[in-house]
Amino acid sequence: MNASNLLVRVQGPLACFTRPEFSTERVSYEVMTPSAARAILEAILWKPAIRWRIHAIHVLSPIRWMEFRRNEVNSRASTRDAASAAAGNTGFGDYYADADRAQRHTVALRDVDYLVEASFALTGRAGPSDNMGKFYGMFERRLGAGQQVFQPYLGCREFPAFVAPVDAERLPKPIDETRALGWMLHDMEYGAERRPRFFSAQLEKGVLHVPAWEEAVTA
User: Fold this and answer.
1) Rounded distance between C-alpha atoms, residue 41 and residue 150, angstroms
2) Can you give the three-state secondary structure of 143-177, one letter per residue?
3) Following DSSP, what letter does each residue of 194-205 receive, concatenated?
4) Beta strands in 60-155 (DSSP E)
5) 149-196: per-residue pLDDT in tens?
6) Domains located in the chain, CATH noted
């Protein structure tokens, strides 16, 4: 563990980091994905001047599952239609959730507890007054005060994440478990096309070590 990395404790009663190979059913990966960890950190501090990098995810509680069914709607609102309605041009029209509802099976994790090890780098959008120390201090103050840009969540927005600082001198121990996790989503590549990137994940004595973005494989 690098002493300069930031450490964040992430907990929650339910989590679902959905595997993309399941089209309709929601089946979670066994461990939080790097993209989900990044989203949680961005919920605490998001700035265009920085880019988060997840180094490791420590699994602190046993991997346990829960299965249930949830009512979901098949359609989603169009961003273009929402912007048009907000501008007073056109409305959405009538929408009846009962006619658009479907019941889907979910295989989720329960009672999750993680230690996320991360850092960030400055981007090309950093200004002359921006520096690493400034953003490190900003993040630690916001984390300690419980300030958030938006409610962090564990894969699905209805599964809230509870985040807290960690004492680097008294780190909780990960579970004593080693197993292959298969191909895991690293993060999304945004460009001319939106493409996922994957890596071969391995849990080693309770720790998922995350390779650099450049080492991930495009699907």
Assistant:
1) 10
2) HHHCCCCCCCEECEEEEECEEEECCCCCCCCCCCC
3) EEEEEEEEEEET
4) 65-73, 101-122, 153-154
5) 999 999 999 999 999 999 888 899 999 999 999 999 999 888 778 899
6) 6-73+105-212 (3.30.70.2660)
